[in-house]
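User: Fold this; tokens only.

Assistant: Input:
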Amino acid sequence: MNVDLKRYKQPWIGNAAIEFWFVLMPPFASLLFIALCPQFFKNNKDMPTGWWVMLILLIDVAHVYSTLYRTYFDGTTFQKQKSLLTIIPFVAFIAGVVLYSISINWFWRILAYVAVYHFVRQQYGFMRIYSRKESNGRLAKILDKFIIYYATLYPIIYWHLKPGRNFSWFVDGDFLSFDSSMLLQVFTIFYVLMLIVMIGKEIYMVVKTGSINVPKFGILAGTVLSWYFGIVYFNGDMAFTLLNVVSHGIPYMALVWLHGKKQQKAQPTNNRLMKTVFSSYGILVFLGIIFLLAFIEEGVWDAFVWKEHQSVFNIFYVDKSALGTGLLTLLVPLLTVPQITHYIIDGFIWKIKDDGFKWNNEVKQTAALPSQ
């Protein structure tokens, strides 16, 4: 058997080099970095300020704002979906205020579960992107779907059934949990079977076709490794954040950038901002804008809610004595609006048709989407 990577055309979205380094490699690079100093990551409960700025501010929060380039900053898309893009943030804010008023704990809990759903679906979406040109049959597609979902859900189940994690998704106690070693053992057996199925299926497909779908396998393997080591193996906030944020945020920003470049080349726009952002050196503007928005949002969060990084956001620390005790009931839901809006519209904006949204569940094989 000869495996010829050159003769097998890989299903890249648009730029093999960018996708390899910024879509496939983030989880592997993160794991390699952790492997160099595992004791620092394994049970670490604290995150140095520099790491927090890089991982949370410049990747996690910034990637949320990169959605703007596919929606609100894109004049064509915004005009076609103006009503929906206006209604979603408004409804998110009102729902947030109501929920926060009823229960702060359940506000964060529901937000955490919505975030998990978003993260899981993104991995599934990337897997679908890179398997869109395959003709392997129904069974192979079912197995791929099972692998990508269980690779993400098992660590979350582990988190729920084995309390004592040194990290949380948003705030302490946002996930429901109860200790059950018996149930965990059952789910672990299925996880081992999933790994066996994954390896066996890929070997079979290589033998059958004499080729390998590199990007799809990279997504599957990267998902398995990053979610398992980030949540199950390394019980530390640094490891969880590094693997969780880098593996999710950087590929998403890369996809937005690739789509924007491709659209600008195919259908040049008169929108000055979009022309600048997706020009030859526009990556600096692309990143600069979302970094600035992330800085402003996190500055307000820190000054009024978390109060953890005053050295970074000192300019936001003002006298708040006259703002009233009910401020957080409005402010916290308001600050989560970009995040919730990102979660909601991300499931639709990549079902592309004439550069607009397809607000239905139809899956186009040629669509480049991060979640379906």
